[in-house]
Design brief:
The structure is a homodimer. By secondary structure, chain A is α+β, with helices and mostly antiparallel strands. In chain A, 25% of the residues lie in helices and 31% in strands. The first copy, chain A, folds into 2 domains: 29-92, Winged helix-like DNA-binding domain superfamily/Winged helix DNA-binding domain (Arc Repressor Mutant, subunit A, Orthogonal Bundle), CATH 1.10.10; 98-258, Chorismate lyase (3-Layer(aba) Sandwich). Chain A has 7 helices and 11 strands. In chain A, the strands form 3 sheets. The first copy, chain A, has a 6-stranded antiparallel beta sheet. Chain A has a 3-stranded antiparallel beta sheet with strand order 1-3-2. The first copy, chain A, has a two-stranded antiparallel ribbon with strand order 4-11. In chain A, a hairpin with a 3-residue loop joins strand 2 and strand 3 (89-92). In chain A, helix 1 packs across helix 3 (66-78) and helix 2 crosses helix 3. The A-B interface holds A 78-80, 103-104, 106, 203-212, 226, 228-231, 234, 251, 253, 257-263 and B 78-80, 103-104, 106, 203-212, 226, 228-231, 234, 251, 253, 257-263. Strand 11 of chain A pairs antiparallel with strand 8 of chain B. The structure holds a DNA duplex.
Chain lengths: 263, 263
DNA sequence: CAGTGGTCTAGACCACACT
DNA sequence: GTGTGGTCTAGACCACTGC
């Protein structure tokens, strides 16, 4: 069913937006608008932290009613791609904001709230360019042998090493990322990815397992090899579900736990 | 700011619903409607799986526009308390539905999708009434010594014991729950809670840790005591965030893993 | 004050499911 | 066809922000 309409009547809207790029399929108007906004988001038309145009402006731009734009933004907001602030505007979400910092880190101390714990002490153990193994290539949608960047780091709380992480990043988007850059950066790593490389992590999935560390891992976390650790394998995605990071974490769960909400 | 209004003008709505019970505070109209619907839900006015009144009916009942009811139901739907079905109606959500069965179980097989795995083989190891320890009482918002029901069971997949669970349930709402009832029931345990005891689990939070089993736990899971296991402590809540179940699970993660989505 | 998002209404039409 | 939820519009007013 085509929705094309000769807009002659007044209450008869023209549900076909004049669309800047062309949208292929047919779905509710607000979904099309959402897709268009998403494109602009991905294209970097508005940067993280910046306001996007007001609902009225967007309604005019796409030739739809404000209510339709509203519903599109509602969904983007529900997906944490955008943040609404009454009286001010709608802003591109960012990992740099104080409120939602470390959104993807679910490890919290057993006692006391995560905010009083203070930031982790970070140590970059290793940072090297290399070629993607088959496994890494699959996770990052690359080809085996493509250049990747591997980072290994330790996070400690109150002097106690608690998290050991290995990261793999696709080489091309992260050209220029060095151990020094990582060391000097203060704040969430994903915020650095945004500001320095224009890569915004939007969604991630994790696989959790209980494992024993090998000798090297045990040493870095200051535990013995019989201490069970929480293994967290994460694939983080940017817009359009493009995988952009593989992360393997080992968490000590003697003083912390992984907190999860089930809706 | 009071919203009371003498509805004389036409486009001037009367945002104060005639409200059946009285709603205490002041919030957007649709929030008040949502709260009213929630009350009916909790009171069991409509049972799980049954349709709630149509949007038009509810709009008439509460003296608001359909759009306002719609927004209220939108939120209830987003919170999985209610399920909309186009052309049919809006239904009270239930754990008995095929599609969202085992919504709270995040353990999935490493290979193959969870649906082909088939249902777990369930074994009730223990089921007894006893008095709440301080710890259990705190989790369930009871007093120490209050009657509780404790259940221990093992879930196996393809003959391999994979999950060992201890459950604590408040004694009063679950009066009459026996090992026999549990054994004879086929389907999700939360579905049994709904149909037999009118307790609908709505939300839960979990704390995950990597641990080693004690001798008895190891035996029940057919592993040795050096095998790291995923410990999952869950508190499940019914309406209004009332805790109704404490569950401690031990998951084998050699063939399965705990899958989590980060938005 | 003007501009933004947030709420509410009213009415039209569409898509879907029963009967 | 009737009734349900789903989409879209238009317009009014409210609440918050910042000039």
């Amino acid at each position: 069913m085509d929705r094309a309409a000769g807009a002659t009547d007044l209450p008869m809207p023209s549900p076909t937006p004049i669309a800047e790029p062309s949208t292929p399929s047919f779905s509710p108007l607000y979904q099309q608008i959402k897709a268009l906004i998403l494109q602009s988001l991905q294209a970097g038309e508005w940067k993280p932290g910046e306001p996007i145009p007001s609902e009225i402006e967007l309604a005019a731009r796409y030739r739809v009613s404000q209510g339709t734009v509203r519903k599109a933004i509602d969904e983007l907001s529900a997906e944490n791609l955008v943040v609404r602030r009454q009286g001010k505007g709608t802003f591109v979400a960012t990992h740099a904001e104080q409120h939602v910092q470390y959104r993807f880190l679910k490890l919290v101390p057993d006692a006391g709230d995560p905010n009083t714990e203070g930031p982790a002490e970070r140590t970059i153990v290793d940072c090297r360019r290399q070629r993607a193994s088959a496994e890494v290539a699959r996770a990052l949608a690359l080809r085996t042998g493509d250049p990747v960047l591997q980072v290994r780091r330790v996070l400690a709380y109150g002097g106690v090493p608690t998290i050991l992480e290995d990261l793999w990043l696709p080489g091309t988007p992260f050209k220029g990322l060095t151990a020094e850059r990582l060391t000097q950066w203060h704040g969430p790593m994903y915020a650095l990815f945004e500001t320095e490389f224009g890569v915004r992590m939007v969604r991630a999935e994790e696989k959790l397992r209980a494992v024993l560390p090998d000798a090297q891992q045990a040493r870095l976390l200051d535990v013995d090899t019989a201490t069970p650790l929480l293994s967290v394998e994460r694939v983080a995605h940017t817009y359009h579900d493009t995988p952009m990071e593989l992360r393997r974490g080992l968490y000590r769960t003697d003083t912390h736990h992984y907190r999860n909400e089930l809706g």
